[in-house]
Predict the 3D structure of the following.
Amino acid sequence: MKDWQKILVRNTAPIIDAIGIIDKGGLQIALVVDENNRLLGTVTDGDIRRALLKQIQLSSPISEAMCTNFVSAREHEDVLALMRQRDIMQIPLVDKNGVITGLKSLKEVVSTPGLENPVVLMAGGLGTRLRPLTDTCPKPMLAVGGKPILETILGNFIAHGFRNFILCVNYKSEIIKGYFGDGSRWGARITYVEEHKRMGTAGALSLLPERPTMPFFVMNGDLLTNTNFRQLLEFHKAGGGKATMCVREYEFQVPFGVVTTNGNALVSIEEKPKHNFFVNAGIYVLNPEALDVIPEDTFYDMPDLYRTLMTQNHSATCFPIREYWLDIGRMDDFERAETEYDSHFCSIQNG
């Protein structure tokens, strides 16, 4: 990689600086060095998200989030064999003193193929909170930024190499099927699952005509996000769980002074405290065996699936979304999406 210097970050720099380097560098990695350019650690998108889950602040030094158990190589070594052995996409090159001299990426050596992992998009909802707009149009087909919401979702997945889509449809399904067809217009393959009654996000998966053979995505069809889905898939596989749920940080401020008491004694007053939570973002990655716990022909929502998996002691992981994300559930969300679309999705719109 010729411009590897652009992905170097000092160990004293804040995490937010590393995020900018990772996003702009296009290789999903930043290299942490000291004042003499000695390699101290690496930082990937996954490292950043794990730090966020630990409530580490973005203003904290990158040394609190970096991985020190990294793989490096010398110029003369067979880096391709090392990449395949360790299942990694990049290897920093160092000299005998540990000073960074370059970076080799798998993309330089072999072309990156498209990904066959299925993407299941839930597009059968009634959208009652968006009436009268949804009286004649299914919610995923409402136009934001000059195109249906569902087309923006599709384009984002395609931009990250995914081509295999399954649309679960119900309400006014003929409009969705008539617009997208078999997906060939986008260089994709689209098939459809017809829901004849409300099945819930997880229940609809029991209708899949074929069981997936690899991890697959499930996503609500009324979300706008520029999440990197390839990074999400890698995060899921590295986590080793049967299911990964995307989560979004949500802040709630109590509009009053909160009083703590002990009997009738006043202990403390906290004025308008803020509380932070992680909320379900409506995007999931599941291993095929997660389907085994879903009952047939029964309404079953995605939280039900995760509760069952955890009850049966199957591991589930969380992927914190730090990118743009908006759930278009109400009219004010729809209006907000229209005003924010160009600043977050112009590359998809023009692609």
Q: What stands out?
A: Confidence is low (pLDDT under 50) at residues 347-351.
